[in-house]
């Protein structure tokens, strides 16, 4: 594909030193790992890297083209055609649009977790497709399978990250490249026909979907769900990241209702309806409440075996 063999852009450095997270002083220290962690699709995600020096690297396909950004607590640097876009979007990426003071803990567990995790912010990438496609890949399969599929496809059809990015980093394919992946390559990447067809349909209307990043979250989710194959689970997982939506809680998840039910009511059998009832006191901040519950580490003891990974490449 053209994206795969595009020449690597000449590294051009743009530097911002200090003051790149214009958050109110009352919000406290920023935790890069907690804030940006939801953007990482597995430990070997080719678009994301955390390095021992405390830097977080991201390779993104922006409206201006591919770009790489390196983020540290004292500043950020960016390279490639998308460098200016990435630097302009950096405050929102680090939670400048988020207001953690709007969250009022009503359970001791959440109060304790909030005190232990004061640096959590809800990221806003401003990019829809880069969160939508891996979310589609995660439909009805284990995260291990989905991460492997994402890794395979990005490395094969994406392009090397611009600038001095760590080895093995890639920018995801552009929308046209996603639509041109042959059926057998989807198969080799362990992606079934339903998920690949959904990704292709989304890529064909990528411009319209990217507009959702500038919409109110409910309207943004409705826009995404116009695409066959994108339901409430996928739209919530996407808009949480692209729009920094504090209230868009994920429904239709295999594990989340039981985790929320156990944490807040000692009920591991909770379904979506029960979960939403338990989160009702956090209206407007239900996604943040769910994030804090997951960070608390209070999960029900496992009884059933883990979901068995599938492998369509063996068929």
UniProtKB/TrEMBL annotation:
Annotated region (Disordered), positions in chain: 1-23
What keywords are assigned to this protein? Answer: DNA damage, DNA repair
Top-level division of the source organism's lineage: Bacteria
Q: Which GO terms describe its cellular component?
A: cytoplasm; protein-DNA complex
Name the Gene3D superfamilies on file: Hypothetical protein, domain 2
Using the record for this protein, list the coiled-coil segments as residue ranges, or answer none: none
InterPro entries noted in UniProt: Alkylbase_DNA_Glycosylase/TA, DNA_glycosylase
Single GO molecular function: alkylated DNA binding
GO biological process, alphabetically ordered: base-excision repair, AP site formation; DNA alkylation repair
Q: What is this protein called?
A: 3-methyladenine DNA glycosylase/8-oxoguanine DNA glycosylase
């Amino acid at each position: 594909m053209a994206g795969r063999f595009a020449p690597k852009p000449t590294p051009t450095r743009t530097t911002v030193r200090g003051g790149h997270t214009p958050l109110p002083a009352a919000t406290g220290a920023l935790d890069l790992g907690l804030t940006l962690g939801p953007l990482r699709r597995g430990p070997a995600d080719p678009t994301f890297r955390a390095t021992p020096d405390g830097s977080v690297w991201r390779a993104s396909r922006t409206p201006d083209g591919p770009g790489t950004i390196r983020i540290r607590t004292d500043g950020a640097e960016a390279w490639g055609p998308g460098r200016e876009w990435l630097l302009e979007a950096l405050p929102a990426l680090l939670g400048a649009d988020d207001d953690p003071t709007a969250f009022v803990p009503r359970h001791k567990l959440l109060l304790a977790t909030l005190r232990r995790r004061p640096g959590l912010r809800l990221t806003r990438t401003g990019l829809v497709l880069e969160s939508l496609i891996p979310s589609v890949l995660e439909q009805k399969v284990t995260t291990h399978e989905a991460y492997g599929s994402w890794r395979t496809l990005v490395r094969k059809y994406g392009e090397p990250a611009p600038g001095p990015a760590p080895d093995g980093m890639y920018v995801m394919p552009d929308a046209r490249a996603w639509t041109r992946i042959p059926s057998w390559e989807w198969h080799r990447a362990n992606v079934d026909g339903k998920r690949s067809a959904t990704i292709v349909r989304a890529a064909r209307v990528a411009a319209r979907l990217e507009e959702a990043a500038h919409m109110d979250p409910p309207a943004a989710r409705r826009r995404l769900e116009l695409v066959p194959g994108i339901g409430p689970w996928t739209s919530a997982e996407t808009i949480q990241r692209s729009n920094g939506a504090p209230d868009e809680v994920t429904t239709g998840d295999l594990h989340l209702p039981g985790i929320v039910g156990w944490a807040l009511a000692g009920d591991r059998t909770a379904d979506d309806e029960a979960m939403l009832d338990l989160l009702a006191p956090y209206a407007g901040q239900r996604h943040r409440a769910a994030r804090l519950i997951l960070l608390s580490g209070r999960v029900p003891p496992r009884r059933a075996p883990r979901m068995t990974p599938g492998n369509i490449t063996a068929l």
